[in-house]
Amino acid sequence: MTTAAPDTAPAAPHVPPAAADPAAFKVVPARHPARWAGAAAVLVLVAQFTHGLATNPVWEWRVFGDYVLSETIVQAVWVTLQLTAYATVLGFLLGTVLAFMRLSHSPVLQTVAWTYIWVFRSIPMIVQLVFWFNLSALYERLGIGIPFGPVFWSVDSDSLIGTIGAAVIGLTLHQAAYAAEIVRGGVLSVDSGQREAAAALGIPRLRQIRRIVLPQAMRAILPTAGNEIIGLLKGTSVVYVMAIGELFYQVQVVYGRNGRVIPLLLVATAWYVLLTSLLSVAQYYVERRYARGADRTPPPTPLQRARRFLRDLRAAAARREAPVTAPHLGGESR
Prior knowledge:
With 334 residues, the protein is mainly alpha-helical. It is 69% helix and 3% strand. A two-stranded antiparallel sheet has the order 1-2.
């Protein structure tokens, strides 16, 4: 007589009802106490600083308002912008030439360019400005003629260069040394295959540089070049040693007369912040333009974001003001 074997199949594991239904889980947001504490501390510091700006009488906001748009200060700002523009254009033109000299296969051009960059990056800007300001002590007259031979035409150094000219020369030569390395780095970032393909197509070398290499190198050049131009804008304050009426020099002259040092320094700070902000905005849009070939869908600009935000607000307001209609019930009464 045989007996049936007991059913030994393993029992199904017990699954809690909460685990079987994902909707039954209780979702708890992650807590970041350190982040909130840090944000609170920063907000307290910002509030204290803002309160001090508004209530501390030493700032003398009335004096600030009297001088920030005065004719003397505005003219000084114009001189600062002129020095920055001249040194930027001439410095980057000379720097581009030096960059391609360093990239040349000629050892003479490489050595001369490297030596120039080494010398002008080693000497502080203020030393260079004082040197060019006293150029007439070294060369009383400058002329044109045959090298190591007779001079056909000459002029007095002071009358030819002048104070502004000496400042522009000093700023330009100093800026060119840094611009050369910026341009050289941007050119080296372009794939060498681009130049090889252009050479295989028979494109002249100058056109390769102008139409192929430099447009692609601009993406690497612009961020650093923008920082360098902003640094040059603030660096023009060094020319106060030459008694040129730029922004910082005029601020010094004014507070030397009336003794209001803090509000006048605040005037210079406000103008430098404004000019730097404008340069930063220009840099953003120039970088965006040269990024068109790489970014198919560039992110929206701040102005585009603002327009989209206003458009969304108007759409939301229109939806709230739209009349609510009763839903249509299908079917006919019989």
